[in-house]
């Protein structure tokens, strides 16, 4: 029998249950995929807690990699036996196998294994659109990146280094500072003992940065705005500490700032753009220019423990479930 992690009510990690599930044959435009590895992302907790509503009962997870075992009618861009990865709705990636739409599947090149793919597809594509689509960043630009030792942070900093962009990263501990530095982060701010905005001003000769990439949310938004130069851009691409309150007048007070709350789905919805972003990402990883750190591996049955670890901030880099 196939198995999946499902939840019947919103709540803490304990609502996650390991259940037997029936997986049928794929219909038109669908495939049946056997997972090899599943991505663990902080955004998964948003669905589990109900911050992002989902019809219940529900599966969980939007990122995984594996092998296609069957294809339905009209599926032409992938075939039985192909190794693929994906990051997309509908929920249900926390499973040993599933039937799902074929459209979001991305074929894996020979140089990237399934575990690496599951660890980097969402994080890597997020880094890709943040650096390549959000703002016309230039060589010699300096940006502020929160959670620099996280899964996105480690990929982002390596990629920024390739582009000649200087990264000021925030971290919560010296251990995470060392990890961030090792992956290309140029300057470290310990946000628990330093004033982020003041340190950013010191590091930029009082000017501030043109862009802040903030995946934390409520706890960091004030410091993020205070770190921006006039007409700077605040990119709120995550809400690990909750949804930040945004007062439009404060945007004016801090220098006519801009703010965006992007979602990865809107940057990979078009097949051509998804292929372009994935191709650039895969090229860097396959060539060794960007290294993917899988620092936590869990059995899928241990999803409750994995969520507790993640929410307690005890993870660094990427985390995956290995099947």
Q: Concise description?
A:
The radius of gyration is 20 Å and the shape is globular. 29% of the residues lie in helices and 27% in strands. The chain has nine helices and 16 strands.
Structural features:
oxidoreductase, alpha/beta, six-stranded parallel β-sheet, 16 strands, seven-stranded mixed β-sheet, ADH-like_C, QOR-like, 9 helices, quinone reductase (NADPH) activity, Rossmann fold, 323 residues, zinc ion binding, Quinone Oxidoreductase, Chain A, domain 1, globular
Description:
The chain has 323 residues and is α/β, with parallel strands linked by helices. The chain has 2 domains: 2-122 and 268-322, Quinone Oxidoreductase, Chain A, domain 1 (Alpha-Beta Complex), CATH 3.90.180; 135-261, Rossmann fold. The chain is built from 9 helices and 16 strands. The protein has helices at residues 43-49, 114-132, 151-163, 174-182, 196-203, 221-226, 248-253, 271-286, 303-311, and strands at residues 2-7, 17-21, 30-40, 58-59, 63-71, 83-87, 97-101, 106-107, 142-145, 166-171, 187-190, 209-214, 228-236, 258-260, 294-298, 318-322. α3 (151-163) links the parallel β9 (142-145) and β10 (166-171). α2 (114-132) crosses α3 and α2 (114-132) crosses α8 (271-286). It is globular.
